[in-house]
């Protein structure tokens, strides 16, 4: 049984289709990149999995448990955590409060402090600013906070939507390094939306290409870079975002 | 000097009452973007819970006969319960509805509660006497102040401090603040929507009950309309304070209380009957100058 199974999933916003009959399996401990042009439905897919948007058809299973139709807070309790597009940190809360919001669902309360320590270890700047209002952090720091906050729920499956968006390449390197390290330490399954196939190839993992709400290609990220030239012919330059930042 | 102290106590106690009513509205608005116009009816409901249900002109005390140590917690619980029950019966089914639809259904709910009260207790205001000894004046700073005013001021401070503690230092408070800022994100982190919303309604109802006890003691009347009047002022306070901002609601409650006491004291005698017209003119001026609320930075999102 896969860690995450998606079967014939469709998502619509009113009449606008965002995902069309998409099927996808993710194995335990795997690292999966999702790439594709703007509007391909990448964020919609993540939001449907986490319960933030309703599905209109199909089903999603985590460890064989049906997620479809469950409330987001119930899905989070099954061990799924998300870093959404745009980070969505709680700006009026302090950094430490942001990290604590997601600990209410945990049964291992005694491990919360040591996990907080791990997050501070990974992102020392967060320790430094733990009592500051999160809204006062820079974009990169907010991204670190969003990742740390997602980790504090002690997830088994973590989904990160465009961690590199708006960040300097050096910070992106650091974020990925930390993500990979944490994945190893915690036997996490990771799903990452990443526009840059080059970046995905360097980090390593499986790559899913989406377009128009469907999966249009998949393979080892390293192999996919070569096909990127082809993809660019369809999608424009997916590295633009990174070059801009 | 005496006069000044007198004015201060009048203003602070009236402001405290408004602040507590406004807090009840701001709490709910903060977590679910609902302006709950039934809040005034929660207040009336709690006042009538003090007396025996009957349409007779003379009120017979019912719960109101209990000693204060029992009565206060009991009424607070009743207030919390009617608020939670109304969430369960009405607002829960409208979670994803348009804010306007929710607001209108809160009007409808208010009408239902009001008419149930009318049918049970009759329409005429009834004289009740709850803790009449609290209206005896005491001498403070050279002013002669009803003991109740002092109690109201202290109660308000206590309520504000307790609420601040709850929001800043407890798990529920953290979840409420997170949910007020971004409900979906809070839920993605496992915050239970039902817990947060039920908590907010329970607190809001308890605040309504506190207001009810104070109004019943102060006015000595049980009137179905009393909730509607204070609801109007409280609603204005939450708007002036910045909808959803709790500190703003408290500050604006005190501000409105203070201004109306000052107008009452210093308007020329012939203009005094129009005090409220002056008050609301000031309110309009406030809203024209700072539509986002007086106590909210121009860029801030509503927060608890
Ligand atoms: N809240 C919404 N309401 C209506 N339509 C939406 C909404 N969110 C997304 N869509 C539409 O759904 C489709 C998929 O959007 P989605 O955000 O999932 O794409 P994406 O792959 O994440 O794009 P990007 O790379 O720009 O983040 C788009 O056509 C978009 O216009
Ligand atoms: Mg997206």
Give a structural overview.
- The complex is a heterodimer of chains A (245) and B (304).
- With 245 residues, chain A is an alpha/beta fold.
- Chain A has a domain at 4-86 and 155-235: Rossmann fold.
- Chain A is built from ten helices and ten strands.
- Chain A has helices at residues 42-50, 72-77, 95-101, 112-122, 124-128, 139-151, 169-186, 197-203, 221-235, 240-244; strands spanning 4-13, 16-26, 31-35, 57-62, 65-66, 80-83, 157-161, 189-193, 206-211, 214-220.
- The longest helix of chain A is centred in the C-terminal third of the chain and has 18 residues, at 169-186.
- Chain A is globular, with a radius of gyration of 17 Å.
- Chain B has 304 residues and is mainly α.
- Chain B is built from eleven helices and four strands, in the order ααααβββααααβααα.
- In chain B, strand 2 (137-140) and strand 3 form a beta hairpin.
- The longest helix of chain B has 31 residues, at 2-32.
- Residues 298-304 of chain B have low confidence and may be disordered.
- The A-B interface holds A 50-52, 71-73, 76-77, 81-82, 84, 88, 90-93, 97, 100-102, 104-105, 149-150, 153 and B 171, 174-175, 177-178, 181-182, 184-193, 300-301, 303.
- Adenosine-5'-triphosphate is lined by residues 13, 16, 18, 36, 38-44, 85 of chain A.
């Amino acid at each position: 049984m896969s860690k995450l199974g998606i079967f014939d999933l469709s998502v619509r916003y009113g009449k606008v289709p965002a995902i069309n009959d998409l099927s996808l399996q993710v194995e335990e401990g795997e690292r999966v990149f999702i790439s594709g042009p703007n509007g391909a439905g990448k964020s919609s897919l993540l939001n449907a999995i986490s319960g933030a948007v309703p599905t209109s058809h199909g089903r999603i299973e985590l460890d064989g448990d049906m997620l479809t139709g469950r409330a987001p807070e119930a899905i989070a309790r099954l061990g799924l955590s998300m870093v959404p597009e745009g980070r969505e940190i709680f700006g009026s809360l302090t950094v430490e409060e942001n990290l604590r919001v997601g600990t209410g669902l945990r049964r291992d309360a005694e491990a919360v402090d040591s996990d907080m320590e791990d997050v501070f270890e990974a992102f020392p700047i967060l320790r430094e600013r733990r009592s500051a209002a999160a809204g006062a952090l820079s974009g990169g720091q907010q991204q670190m906070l969003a990742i740390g906050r997602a980790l504090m729920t002690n997830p088994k499956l973590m989904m990160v939507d465009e961690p590199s968006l708006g960040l300097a390449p050096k910070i992106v390197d650091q974020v990925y390094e930390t993500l990979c390290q944490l994945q190893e330490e915690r036997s996490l399954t990771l799903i990452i939306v990443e526009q840059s196939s080059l970046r995905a190839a360097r980090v390593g993992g499986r790559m899913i290409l989406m377009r128009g709400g469907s999966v249009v290609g998949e393979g080892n990220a390293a192999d996919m870079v070569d096909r990127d030239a082809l993809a660019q012919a369809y999608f424009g330059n997916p590295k633009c975002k990174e070059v801009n930042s | 000097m005496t006069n000044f102290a007198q004015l201060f106590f009048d203003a602070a106690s009236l402001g405290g009452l408004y602040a507590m009513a406004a807090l009840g509205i701001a709490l709910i608005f903060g977590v679910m973007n609902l302006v709950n116009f039934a809040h005034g009816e929660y207040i009336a409901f709690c006042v009538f819970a003090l007396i025996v249900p009957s349409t007779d002109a003379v009120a017979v005390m019912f719960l109101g006969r209990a000693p204060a140590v029992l009565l206060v917690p009991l009424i607070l619980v009743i207030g919390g319960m009617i608020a939670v029950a109304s969430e369960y019966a009405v607002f829960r089914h409208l979670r994803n509805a348009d804010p306007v639809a929710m607001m209108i259904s809160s009007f409808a709910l208010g009408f239902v509660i009001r008419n149930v009260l009318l049918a049970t207790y009759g329409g005429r205001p009834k004289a009740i006497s709850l803790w009449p000894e609290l209206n005896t004046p005491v001498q403070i700073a050279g002013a002669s102040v009803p003991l109740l005013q002092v109690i109201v001021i202290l109660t308000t401070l206590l309520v504000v401090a307790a609420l601040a503690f709850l929001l800043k230092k407890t798990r529920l408070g953290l979840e409420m603040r997170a949910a007020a800022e971004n409900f979906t994100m809070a839920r993605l982190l496992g915050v239970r929507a039902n817990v947060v919303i039920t908590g907010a309604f329970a607190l809001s109802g308890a605040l309504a009950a506190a207001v009810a006890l104070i109004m019943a003691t102060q006015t000595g009347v049980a009137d179905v309309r009393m909730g509607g009047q204070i609801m109007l002022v409280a609603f204005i306070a939450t708007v002036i304070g910045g909808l959803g901002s709790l500190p703003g609601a408290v500050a604006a409650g005190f501000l409105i209380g203070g201004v109306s006491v000052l107008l009452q004291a210093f308007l020329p005698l012939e203009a005094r009957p129009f005090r409220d017209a002056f008050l609301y003119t000031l309110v309009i001026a406030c809203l024209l100058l700072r539509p986002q609320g007086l106590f909210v930075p121009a860029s801030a999102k509503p927060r608890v």
